[in-house]
Amino acid sequence: MPKLDREAIVSEALTLLDNIGLDAMSTRQLAKRLGVEQPSLYWHFRSKNALFAAMAEAAMAPHATMPLPATPQDWREWFMENWRSFRQTLLMHRDGARLHAGTNPKGSDFARAVHKLEFLVASGLPEHEARVAMLTANHFTIGSVLEEQADTTEEDDDGPEMDYATTFDMGLAMIIDGLAQRTTRDMNPPS
């Protein structure tokens, strides 16, 4: 048996998540898959919630490697690509949005979030509006993926099949357009 460490546990936990889903996950099942006794997991993670937090962080790794924005990049293009990347990363794992919901960035992820906010401000957006836009896009993205991952409709249902990617892009464009309009209005108040 290979050495049991946090990385191996999280990797196997994400595989288990993809196989059975978040509701069915248990440390008992994970320990069995790893060939260890359940208390061995608690040596590395104090609780199931701590394990889930580590899983959520690891699941976000593909998005965390996306290049950070830099001037003179257009903030609208970056904003669209950033949240598309976030959406795609959430979709990589079964129940990825549920796993990620409620987490907060820490360490290097927090530093990346601060850099993104600073980029938006340097691009001419007021800081408050940039913060709210990032939070709104975050919630919109998680909610969109939650709905997509929860969709259990069959193709032969009466309604048309949802094109989630197109709908997501349209909603995100509305957030961007609203932010651009607010920013223009704030910078050019009526006389």
Explain this structure to me?
- By secondary structure, this protein is mostly helical.
- Helix content is 69%, strand content 0%.
- It has 10 helices and no strands.
- It has helices spanning 6-20, 27-34, 38-44, 48-59, 61-64, 75-90, 96-100, 107-122, 127-150, 164-187.
- The longest helix has 24 residues, at 127-150.
- The chain starts with 5 loop residues before the first helix and ends with a helix.
- 24% of the residues are buried.
Could you name the key traits of this structure?
191 residues; mainly alpha; 10 helices; 69% helix; transcription; DNA-binding
Largest sheet features: none
Q: Termini distance?
A: 74 Å
Mean pLDDT: 91
Quantity of strands, as a count = 0
User: Approximately how much helix is present in the residues?
Assistant: 55-70%
Structural class: mainly alpha
| Shape, principal axes of CA atoms | globular
What Rg is obtained from the alpha carbons, in whole angstroms?
20 Å
Give unreliable regions as ranges. none
Number of helices: 10
Percentage beta strand? under 5%
Question: Order of SSEs, N→C?
Answer: HHHHHHHHHH
